[in-house]
Specification:
This protein is mainly α. Helix content is 55%, strand content 2%. α1 runs parallel beside α3, α2 (20-41) runs antiparallel to α3 (52-61) and α3 packs across α5. The model has no long low-confidence stretch (mean pLDDT 95).
Length: 200
Amino acid sequence: MILPTVDDIRALHEKHAPTPEAFELVYTHCEIVWKIAEQLLSADGHRLDLDADLTRAGALLHDIGVYRLYDNTGRLRTEDYIRHGVLGHAILREEGFPEQLCRFCSCHTGVGLTRHDIERQNLPLPVADYVAETAEEQLVMYADKFHTKTTPPAFLSFDTYAAQIGRFGEEKASAFHTLRTRFGEPTLAPLTTQYGHTPA
């Protein structure tokens, strides 16, 4: 598989972003997720046997579906946010990308969405399992949990996100803890300084 370059991916974001503000919000978040994943890839004691280039592409593309949630006034329809993953999957498929890349979009929400989650919560998604399977998918999903695109954007500690995901069941909290055991915890202070996004 020939992976898109960073410049290719940035151009794709610019193509689909409805406004410069939307681009700035989404692309910056994706860039931060890649930097977190990159840090975890090379952390002492956690040298991971993963495809770093695939992880980078997945991180930089994972939230591209958010652009399809903006209305004609430039407002983000947060009530439909749960759909951003499948929307991103559709964008990448339309752009001719292989399933291996498309899955980074549809399989990063929370710590994975199952058929059971969708049916139990009556979520507006096609009933299927949207669960990170490869190590690269799991790392991008995990790294994503440490930064949020809220207004203003912010970094999240492990404990902050663990408390949030725990509201959806003990199995979700347990899955998040398992990811920490595998990948470790990122050091967020340098990124908070670089991007000016304070901890939530």
